[in-house]
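Re: the 265-residue chain
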Amino acid sequence: MTAIALTIAGSDSSGGAGIQADLKTFAALGVYGASAITALTAQNTQGVSGIHDVPPDFIVAQIDAVFSDLDVGAVKIGMLSRAPAIEAIGAALDRHRAKNTVLDPVMVAASGAQLLADDAIATLRKVLIPRALLITPNLPEAAALTGTPMAKDEAGMAAQARQLLQAGARNVLIKGGHGEGADSVDLLMGADYDERLAAPRHPTRNTHGTGCTLSSAVAAGLAKGLDLVAAVRAAKSYVTAAITAADRLAIGHGHGPLHHFHAHW
């Protein structure tokens, strides 16, 4: 059986994040990738210059087309800029009984551009977070979702993860890439367990698409039959290696992408 994963996310014209990063990650990890595009962005390694939202009914048409024909083993959800799209996707996931959904609550691009409208945050909390097997906020996103200051240490990260669990999340992976220290520490928490995942912090500015890549790598592992903890551990290892190899690429003049195919070329 071929492992298949679906990404529901925005397109990055420079190829480093969004749908493009997701499909590269799926391919690198031996998973067939399908896609439903939620928005077109005009962007490169230096920033986002434009966003064109796909109408909710056409987002759903893409999702319906994939599920009506492909045996989707996992779903990754990324950039969703408007509340109506979030509501439509939630209904589509229910209709198709989607399994192994990983939600990356993308709010701000690495360049600083806002990608999620302020009035859509409450809809994201209500509609998609409870439907997801795992949510993967970074430190600023976890702060925005909990309405608290950005965590400064692991204790703060754990407190925000518990708050998200109490608010309806099933499992939470808070990513520490925006933190400081020799190690980049992520915390994975569920109702009755917690896991600390640490990796040496690699000094590079080529980190465009890191969050997209990590959530897609988790979805790839789930599509291949790994349990959640194993999928997250494997994803952390893959992303760490892709960051470490990022400087082997020379892409653009700003924050370049990870090397998704570091093991292949």
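The first strand starts at residue 4 and ends at 12.
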